Amino acid sequence: MPSRPTRPPLSRTTTHPLYHTARKKPRRWPLVLRFIKGAIHADIAIPVLTSAIFTALIVYVNQATHQHFSLPTNTIPSISIVVGLMLVFRNSTSYDRFWQGNSHLTTAATSIRNLTRSFLTCSHLAGKEPDDVESADTERTVRLLLAIIYAVKNHLRAEWGETIPLLLPKTEVDRRRRESQSLQRAEYIDLLPPGTRGYEDHGLGLLLQLSVQIEAYIKRGHDRGWFHAPQASQLTVQLNTLVDAYGSMEQIHLTPLPVAYLIHMRQVLALFCGLLAFGLCDEMGWWSILLVTFISFTLYGIEAIGAQLEDPFGYDRNDIKMDAIIEDLRVETTVLLEQWKTGSDIFEIKYN
């Protein structure tokens, strides 16, 4: 009986579309057992512990003095409705900011993809191969497009590259920020033309500075006859969409929730957890401590999640995966640029 042919071993590559964005580490522990990475326990430890200590004090005084100063049982449900509505508004608003931030970042990446495709495909005249100067101009502009998305990330994280000195790391977040800033400078050296100087110290964002150079390239392409007028107009629209998405992300970053609402939210949570101690101390006794701790852990945890989602462009594990999204865009753009430089038939450019 003839043997069945065996399949050749699958060749595994180091990347694939959206490799960095879709990559996930295997979970060694169920989420219910995670208390450090990605959790908000450290942020709410103090208010939860304070509620537990206050409840223990109320139970002790209630049992030691036999005064029975507990609240009526119907008081707590009435207040809990108000607290629930406030938390729903808090988290829905914060998640909307998270979703909008991710949407605007995707819009910026899509605009860069569209501009890259158009620049590499259309930057020539039919039947005429571009000379070295023109090819270098196109390659330089595509690299500027890729540098723009890094400028977006650095601007939203207040990482200004060479213009603002790095601080010594005091916390883990500071250390990661310092390492990221060092990496950003290396990326800018690779993407920006030699001698490029930023003007962040003068108040000009790097993205706007680079967008001027992209607009100048579109004009040069129109003057050379590469882009007809409607096409040049569409390229400018794509560039405007990119800048508009950048402005929307900047608005999310610079417009926090009103401080009056945040103060009132914290005060209401503290008052509610305090009233729980009075409402449960008579019936539950020392078990009130456990119940109040659990309720305060739940309420303060929901509020802390909303606080993290409020500005989704940082380094928290619950923030947008900006580094992964931008790295995937860099891989895509680099592959297209390398294929264009080697004359690959992916662009179907044929010269007679």
From TrEMBL:
Keyword Transport included in the entry's annotation: yes
GO cellular component, one term: membrane
Subcellular location: Membrane
Domain of life, per lineage: Eukaryota
GO molecular function: chloride channel activity
The keyword Ion transport belongs to this UniProt entry's keyword annotation: yes
Annotated TM spans: 44-63, 69-89, 259-278, 284-302
Keywords of this entry: Ion transport, Membrane, Transmembrane, Transmembrane helix, Transport
Protein name, as recorded: Bestrophin/UPF0187
Protein's organism: Acrodontium crateriforme
Membrane-topology descriptor: Multi-pass membrane protein
Major place of residence: membrane
Xref: Pfam families: Bestrophin_2 (PF25539)
